[in-house]
# Entry
Amino acid sequence: MAESLPQEMLTYILSFLPLSDQKEASLVSRAWYCAAQNALREQPGLTSLDLSGCSELSDRALLAVSRGLRHLQHLSLRKLQRLTDAGCTALGGLWELQSLDMAECCLVSGRELARALGSVHGAPPPLASLSLAYCSSLKPHRELEHQALGPKDPSPQPQGSSLFMLQSLQELDLTACSKLTDASLAKVLQFPQLRQLSLSLLPALTDKGLVAVARGCPSLERLALSHCNLLSDDGWTQAANFWPRLQHLNLSSCCQLTEQTLDTIGQACKQIQMLDVAMCPGISMAAVRRFQAQLPQVTCVQSRFMGGADLTLTL
# Structure
């Protein structure tokens, strides 16, 4: 009787048995063995795994993880120096993944990662947090660059192998992904639910890219743009009005910014609570004091000036 049951039904029935009984059932026949193996895979298990710093782990290890831990929700692969695009394909099997940390996985490209995350039955996992900091190989595909330079679609839809498909994303860290440009950021960074974003140490980010990100990510509450030396007051004049929810802002070492940017932020970002303008030579201490007087809810302004003074104003 049991032999005539569909494989899915047999798997469902065995999933209610204790682990020891499932192992016994796997000895009955080949069909029962397959059903028992499927039931084992589908059992709730480990949901969080941190492999940070395991520099000797290779692509095979990630493949084994994806096969044996289907219910992973949080995965950290920070500093896995041997992980390549081939290993990224295994991420497509982690259907419940909610947060992924691949900071300093320098052999992984953005195109293959996007393809892997979008390979689950044509839809990406419900990823909410993604860190790709210091991924020096992260760069857009040429076709993506070409599309970004063309006329902008007023109602874009996720297409192809792009991080743009991760529409549920709320946190994204692209710190020191130095090959990213305005064109790729304008095309990819369109996440209406995104609350936290880091674009620090992006040498090619200009005012054009800043405005594009502001339009694509209007719900930002935390934004880091330190060492983005091409940003100017004009860029902030256009971008600030898109971020009324902004609370934490890091502009340290943005050397072209002046007190005009502080005035712009003060007028447009009424919920701002923390501001870092350390090493911004165009912003004086007097300008910082005026900014805090304008926005009494600001609790902390960090200012470290070229002359050596290290000042933090806390209310």
User: Anything to note?
Assistant: Residues 1-43 form a domain with the Monooxygenase fold (CATH 1.20.1280). Residues 224 and 250 are 5 Å apart (CA to CA).
